[in-house]
Specification:
The protein is mainly β. It has a domain of 223 residues: Integrin alpha, N-terminal (Methylamine Dehydrogenase, Chain H, 7 Propeller). Helices cover 3% and strands 36% of the residues. The chain is built from three helices and 26 strands. A four-stranded antiparallel beta sheet has the order 3-4-5-6. It is globular and about 60 Å long. The two termini are 37 Å apart. 42% of the residues are buried.
């Protein structure tokens, strides 16, 4: 459903008129079994699109038509099905420019015995191919039942990694499928960069600590810098258990920058803004978007890992209302608050 804020304390249901209510033409019943959504400006036109993860039916891609309506292009864009034209049990979802270039990646955690999906945009920004296998996120994820999923730079090296929170639906699943367990460990994929071949490699407990991989019946997951030390900590929820707070204690000595955006003519939290941090021949593109994973919301400030870079040349902000501003960076390893100006600098 989609509810439009009327600005007077009331909302209007525009699900049908906006085009996001997809019905089976034969039965007239809704098609969706939606579990998560990734709002992102996929085609760089300044308007937020919606990618919807559906369980056992095709995923949706709602392309914003700039007039209060959306056009569903999931099948045409390549995100609706797997490589064999089959729907999967899609759960959590996130999107990011994980290669630090113009390509957009849409990662989806799927059901047990189904691999993660990693749809990557091609030359046409609205055309995607599932590159989970070639990028290393496929086979290693097959056995697990993935719910929470998000991109984040856990080691601050400037490349976005992926964490999935996992757990089965059936408490006694092991009695009928010996390869399955009700409680399952999380899975962390380190992004080592495309220049080294396969981008994503699973991180073992010896590298990230055993607490992160303790088997739970995992569901939601989110990230935030809880202890204010610059790196991103993780919260995971579980069935019949308390939420878990995993503190990130990495000590790799990588530099970082945290950015908090405040909109004036745009929405106050600057949701939907794009940040481009330029440092030498590196460009890090990140979107201000708390909606990620499965039934979860992460923090609004954006953390940019810089690795061993010691200088940032500039920050460019593309605000949701369309204005672009450029900022200098006086120092690293700090949080900067950037306020939208009425006079764009670019």
């Amino acid at each position: 459903s989609l509810y439009r804020n009327d600005g007077n304390g009331k909302f209007t249901d525009v699900s049908e008129s906006s085009g996001v209510q997809i019905k089976n033409p034969a039965t007239g019943r809704p098609v969706a079994k939606s579990l998560a959504v990734a709002p992102v400006d996929a085609d760089n036109d300044g308007w937020i699109d919606l990618i919807v993860a559906n369980d056992t039916v095709q995923n949706f891609f709602f392309n914003n038509q700039h007039n209060g309506t959306f056009k569903e292009i999931g099948a045409r864009s390549g995100v609706a099905f797997d490589a064999y034209g089959l729907a999967r049990g899609a759960m959590g979802i996130d999107s990011a420019r994980f290669r630090n270039d113009d390509a957009l990646g849409i990662a989806i955690g799927n059901f047990a015995n189904e691999m993660n999906a990693l749809y990557v945009s091609q030359r046409d920004a609205l055309l995607f191919a599932d590159e989970a296998i070639t990028e290393g996120m496929g086979p290693a994820s097959r056995l697990l039942l993935k719910f929470g999923l998000f991109f984040f730079d856990y080691d601050l090296d400037g490349r976005l990694d992926v964490l999935t929170t996992n757990g089965h639906l059936e408490e006694e699943i092991n009695k009928v499928q010996q390869s399955q367990q009700y409680r399952q460990p999380a899975q962390l994929f380190w992004n080592r960069g495309a220049a080294r071949g396969v981008s994503f490699v699973p991180v073992p407990p010896t590298k990230a600590g055993g607490d992160l991989f303790r088997p739970i019946v995992g569901r939601g997951s989110a990230f935030a810098d809880i202890d204010g030390d610059g790196d991103l900590d993780v919260v995971m929820t579980q069935i019949n258990g308390p939420p878990l707070l995993l503190r990130n204690d990495q000590r790799l000595g990588n530099n970082w920058l945290r950015l908090k955006l405040l909109g004036t003519s745009s929405n106050r939290d600057a949701i939907g803004a794009w940040i481009k941090v330029r440092a030498g021949n590196h460009t890090f593109s990140r979107q201000v978007m708390p909606t990620r994973s499965y039934l979860s919301q992460s923090e609004l400030p954006v953390t940019i890992g810089l690795g061993k870079l010691t200088k940032v040349d500039s920050i460019e902000i593309v605000w949701p209302r369309g204005g672009t501003q450029k900022h200098n960076v006086p120092k690293l390893n700090t949080t900067m608050t950037l306020v939208e100006s009425s006079k764009p600098t670019l």
